[in-house]
Recover the amino acids of this structure.
């Protein structure tokens, strides 16, 4: 299933915060949306999910598997979210209920989408916890009893519980220490690969992007300033924005060898 965004604009409080953005995420592709803070990355993702703030005006087209999402009733969009399109946000806390055990929360998406009864959902939750390599006993704990990296693993398990075809990850590792960040990125890459999912990955960090995406769209002030393979962005950046991102990239940027 593919996502096609064409001429997307979002106007908020009279400001055009996303301006004529077009890109696609083909079946199985891993695409990054990259840009400085405030460039419109999150709002682009929220538009795809039908989760824009009240009062936002949207123009253009967002097609999921050929079906136009703009203007779709919220009930239908809600059915797509989680079921076909999974979401992981920067701060796992926002996705987790502090008063419920992790096990119940991981089991919940399956129950909401009517795929499983309580007992079966809990068994599946254990399988999902193993898949994201949560430690033994994590399902019986409450979110505050886990580390930040473990909480993000829980959020990933929840996002993937219904086996969506597209995962949208909005800065999923930004709040984590560098070593944990690398582990979570590796895990995401592995899960996306194993499930044959597509990935739309949002980040301001070209080094992070290079670890998970093969193509990317660079945004500045809500507009696309450059798009291409990540290898090209790293080795032959065309825009000043991309050159700036390359200078700011954390850690060691993966650089392709030769023409790879
Ligand atoms: N609810 C809102 N109401 C009004 N303006 C908003 C709202 N949310 C975001 N904006 C503005 O829209 C612009 C784009 O925001 P967006 O969150 O998409 O940027 P971003 O690239 O994801 O940045 P960040 O990395 O900081 O999240 C910013 O100027 C922001 O201030």
């Amino acid at each position: 299933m593919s996502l096609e965004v064409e001429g997307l604009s979002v106007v908020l409080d009279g400001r055009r915060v996303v301006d004529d953005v077009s890109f696609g995420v083909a079946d199985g592709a891993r695409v990054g949306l990259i840009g400085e803070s405030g460039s419109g990355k999150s709002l682009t993702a929220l538009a795809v999910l039908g989760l824009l703030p009240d009062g936002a005006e949207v123009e253009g087209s967002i097609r999921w598997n050929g079906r136009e999402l703009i203007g779709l009733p919220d009930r239908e969009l809600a059915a797509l979210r989680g079921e076909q399109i999974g979401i992981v946000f920067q701060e796992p806390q926002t996705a987790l209920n502090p008063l419920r055990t992790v096990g119940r929360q991981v089991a919940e998406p399956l129950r909401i989408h009517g795929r499983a009864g309580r007992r079966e959902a809990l068994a599946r939750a254990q399988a999902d916890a193993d898949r994201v390599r949560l430690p033994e006993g994590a399902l019986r704990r409450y979110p505050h009893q886990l580390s930040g990296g473990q909480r993000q693993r829980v959020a990933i398990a929840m996002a993937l519980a219904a086996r969506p075809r597209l995962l949208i990850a909005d800065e999923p590792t930004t709040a984590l220490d560098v070593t944990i960040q690398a582990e979570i990125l590796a895990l995401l890459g592995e899960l996306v690969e194993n499930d044959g999912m597509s990935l739309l990955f949002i980040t301001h960090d070209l080094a992070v992007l290079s670890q998970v995406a093969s193509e990317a769209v660079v945004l500045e002030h809500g507009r696309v300033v450059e798009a291409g393979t990540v290898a090209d962005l790293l080795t032959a950046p065309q825009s000043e924005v991309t050159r700036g991102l390359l200078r700011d990239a954390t850690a060691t940027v993966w650089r392709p060898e030769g023409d790879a």
In short: The chain has a mean pLDDT of 90. Residues 12-13, 17, 35, 37-43, 53, 204 surround adenosine-5'-triphosphate (CB under 6 Å). The two ends are 27 Å apart (CA to CA).
